[in-house]
Structures are given as structure tokens and as C-alpha cells.
Specification:
Blueprint: E1 4-11, E2 16-19, E3 25-38, E4 45-58, H1 59-68, E5 74-87, E6 94-107, H2 125-138
Parallel strand pairs: 4-6
Antiparallel strand pairs: 1-3, 1-5, 2-3, 3-4, 5-6
Amino acid sequence: MSSTMTLTGRLTGTPELRFSAAGVAVAAFTIVTSRRVKDQTTGEWSDADTTYWDCKAFKQLAENICASLDKGMEVVAVGRAVQESWEDRQSGAKRSKIAVRVDAIGPSLRAATARVEKTSGGGQGRQQYEQARQASSREGMDDPWGSGVPGTQAQAGGWGDGDDRPPF
């Protein structure tokens, strides 16, 4: 059992929307948190305690995140820490990390405004995604995770940090 945690930070990239084999929407994104501190001798501000949090959200929340949030936005997220384990494909070594399973998230209104729109909640994201993917294929874009599909982001080299983390 894990405790609820609240993160206030910025999205390091555009949330990536994928679908499991069962058709469940999964949003993967990273939130960077840090504390601003002022050096009393120089008077300059700097970041301290910087932490990058790998986050995942599922179902309608995942679809709403990808439709609403973008790289650089300051967000407030509520979730719980979970330990993810997997086996490295190259070496066969067991690996694990702590990630955040997000239960609720929204833009921080500290320095921004937002207009909220209620969604139908009918799980139409998969259908909209497939339509966008087919349209991008017709335009000569063979990569369904490329920038031509709304709510997704291409990352060079797989997951961007060179390890063999599981995608979900």
C-alpha cells in the first residue's frame, strides 16, 4: 500500500498517448520538481532538490491529459508511488524503479488561466486516435507515434534515456 503524493512541477515533454493490447488508453509523461532557493551571499536564485518523476495515467484521464496538457506547463498532480519491475532485454538483469500512478492532474493556476470543458467520457479517444493515424498514413507519414498524430510525441532512441524500461 502506498501513500498519496502531490507533485507540483513542469511537464518535461508532451504527454504520450498509447493504447494497451486491450484498448486501454495510457498516458506517459515526466514531471520535474524543484525548489527555488536564494543564495544569501550573491542574491541569485537557483534550483535545488531537482527530481524527475516518471508518471502514468490510464483510461479517460490519460486521454484528457494528452488533449489538455503540453510540454513546459506547470501542473499539480495527485497520485501514488508504485514500484515497476522488469527484466533488461540485453543483459537479462532484473531492474526496477519508482514511478507515479497519477489519479488526478491539472494545470497550475499560479501563473496561468484555464478554461475547463466537461468531456462526454465515452472513451472516444481510441476511435479519434485511429482516425488521426489513418489520416497521417494517407499523408505519407508511416510512423503512428510521429508528430502528425495529435497527443503523441516521437522520441529519438526509444524512451529517451537509453534504458530498457517497459513502455507501460
